[in-house]
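Q&A log
Question type: sequence-to-structure
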Amino acid sequence: MSWSVEHDDVLNIVVSTYAGKCTGRDFREAVAARSAMAGKLGLNKALIDAGKLEVSAAATFDLYDIAGHYNHGANFQCTRKIAITRPDSAESRKVVDFYETACLNRGLDVKVFEERNSAVEWLLEEY
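Response status: OK
Response body:
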């Protein structure tokens, strides 16, 4: 498995971590797991650690589709604020930047950061 989802009890957020090559199916499963955990724990903020993510442009359509489903159905129950750390890989960065744009175009509060500390600070800010 190229992803994991866990609850950070100190920050009280859901953290998804991607490492290695991920497919559209991996992303769908990870989003479903993150959404289920957030729903079960009553959380509305998530950190996606994509620093070690390897993904090709071929996954762009899958991510576009996932972004479009956030507000539809229990399997895609949306956390309200999502911070993403930018991948090391140049190709993966382009895909993650596209995902951020797709989410923003749908009114979702998603932002990509160069490093984790900035992502967490933004995530924990009150509206």
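Response note: Helices lie at 24-41, 60-68, 90-105, 116-124.
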